[in-house]
Design goal:
This protein is an alpha/beta fold and 272 residues long. It has a single domain, classed as Rossmann fold (3-Layer(aba) Sandwich), CATH 3.40.50.1580. Helix 1 crosses helix 3 (95-103) and helix 4 packs across helix 8. It has a 5-stranded mixed β-barrel with strand order 5-8-7-6-9. Helices cover 31% and strands 25% of the residues. It is globular and about 50 Å long. The protein has helices spanning 7-17, 90-93, 95-103, 159-172, 192-201, 211-219, 244-253, 255-271, and strands at residues 24-28, 40-46, 64-70, 73-79, 107-116, 126-134, 176-183, 205-207, 223-233. The protein is built from 8 helices and 9 strands. Bound molecules: hypoxanthine.
Length: 272
């Protein structure tokens, strides 16, 4: 099975509006959406106008592509993402990543919201993703022809970009935890028994995104980094019940720190 739409065609359309493509792409997930407001925008395209881009359908995901500068550093920014739980296939939700690669982007920073599993990971904390566990039922490379689908994932998260994020957090005086991200399909949250099982598997946090994008970005040869905002204690890790509204509220509360972290990161990135 091949994807029906060509990433090159969509990339050509973007290039007409935004001719100078930066080397760094940032995907703003829940908890990081507000950073779009700090970008000095050169060009902006709604995802609905881009062939092959699924439209994000979740509150907190606005669905637009921005070319501009964050802290004077050129970035291309995807505000919002689509999720497997919306009914899209893994290949569909990762089409924008293929388009970014076709545009000539070299590095990608993915951001997301997660529930904290490991004791000590608290709402509003940030976690540098060091590795992941994929429990989604579909791999975005499934059905591809050729042998490059047998993708090595030993070092999925680039050590150089990770180091930059650690240095950025230190410079911005933001506590950055490290941990393993476990991806579930959602959209229902987990049961406490599932969370206990995930902890035993080695997961530090749980979320419903990012992993398919990481796989495709690596398949395209991009360097990848990912940062999570802990928006809640995972199910059973506190007395509270889980709600998407609470996830969004905590994400908003962490916005200022998220912005500071990313601004410092892009500065260090630009220095090389
Ligand atoms: N579980 C899964 N996805 C999430 C969570 C969670 O607790 N919080 C934010 N995204």
């Amino acid at each position: 099975m091949q994807r029906a739409l060509s990433p090159d065609r969509t990339a050509a359309q973007i290039r007409r509006i935004c001719p100078n493509i930066p080397s760094l792409a940032v995907i703003l997930g829940s908890g990081f959406a507000g950073i779009a407001g700090a970008v000095e925008i050169d060009a902006e395209i709604p995802c609905s106008g881009l062939p092959g881009f699924p439209e994000p359908g979740t509150a907190g995901h606005s669905g637009r592509l921005i070319c501009g500068k964050l802290n004077d550093v050129p970035i291309i920014c995807l505000c919002g993402r689509s999720h497997f739980y919306e009914g899209y296939t893994a290949a569909e939700i990762t089409f924008p990543i293929r388009v970014l690669a076709a545009l000539g982007v070299k590095d990608i920073l993915l951001t997301n919201a997660v529930g904290g599993i490991r004791r000590g990971l608290r709402p509003s904390d940030f976690m540098l993703v060091t590795d992941h566990i994929n429990l989604l039922p579909e791999n975005p490379l499934r059905g591809m022809v050729g042998t490059d689908k047998f993708l090595d994932m030993t070092i999925a998260y680039d050590p150089g970009l990770r180091d930059l994020l650690v240095r950025a957090a230190r410079a911005a005086k933001i506590r950055l935890r490290r941990g393993v991200y476990l991806a579930v399909a959602g959209p229902s949250y987990e049961t406490p028994a599932e969370i206990r099982a995930f902890a035993r598997l080695g997961a530090d946090a749980v979320g419903m995104s990012t992993v398919p994008e990481v796989i495709v970005a690596r398949h395209c040869g991009l360097r990848v980094a990912a940062i999570s905002c802990i928006t809640n204690f995972a199910a059973g890790r506190s007395k509270d019940l889980l709600s998407h509204a609470d996830v969004l509220i905590t994400g908003e509360m962490a916005q200022k720190a998220a912005e500071k972290l990313l601004k410092t990161f892009v500065r260090l990135y630009a220095k090389g």
